[in-house]
Amino acid sequence: MILYTLVCDNKHKFESWFASSAGYDKQAARGLVSCPVCNSTKVEKAIMAPSLGRSRKRSAGAAIEANAEAIAPEAAPTEAAPEVKAPVAMMSPQEREFRAKLKELRSHLTKNADYVGGKFPEEARKMHYGEIEHRSIYGEASPDDAKALHEEGIEFHPLPVLPDERN
Ligand SMILES: [Zn+2]
Predict the structure, then answer these.
(1) Region for residue 87 given its phi and psi (left: phi exceeds 0; alpha: psi -120 to 50; beta: otherwise)
(2) What residue ranges of the chain have pLDDT lower than 50?
(3) Ligand 1: distance of its center to the CA of 76 in Å?
(4) Is the pTM of this model over 0.70?
(5) CA of residue 49 to ligand 1 center, whole Å
(6) Which of 31, 83, 101, 167 is deepest in the core (most CB within 10 A)?
(7) Comparing C-alpha atoms, which of 3, 49, 61, 12 is closest to residue 34?
(8) What is the Cα–Cα distance from 6 to 46, expressed in whole angstroms?
(9) Separation of 133 CA from ligand 1 center, angstroms?
(10) How far away, in angstroms, is 93 Cα from ligand 1 center?
(11) Ligand 1 center–CA 83 separation, angstroms
């Protein structure tokens, strides 16, 4: 399991889980990796800049990541696009194994974090701005909320979503 920091053609940075680096290449080549902020499938691995701790915004985001592991589910498809076809796949044994690992990872994350439901953006913000103690939380964020949090420099991880549990 690898967590990659990716960047889309609109310069949104986000993170996503992959079985392996080859797994990422395969999914990206099929256009299955999309930006949670703008849904662009033109994504690539972000080049990791050396951390100089210069930007305040950046270090605040890093603190949330290290202490709170704020977790949001993958942004849901926008309602305005009813005709979007969902990606489908025949699963190989490796993909089945990957899926089992995703499930394991997700149950680990959810067991160790507080479920805050739709209050996720609010709670993540309070932590980011130091109004409440950092802790691990997970919940739901709409694409608009995800975009707003992203613009405020609040980092969160997509919660692994299993293909047949999307609906
Ligand atoms: Zn984007």
Answers:
(1) beta
(2) 53-73, 76-77, 81, 166-167
(3) 14
(4) no
(5) 19
(6) 101
(7) 12
(8) 5
(9) 30
(10) 31
(11) 20
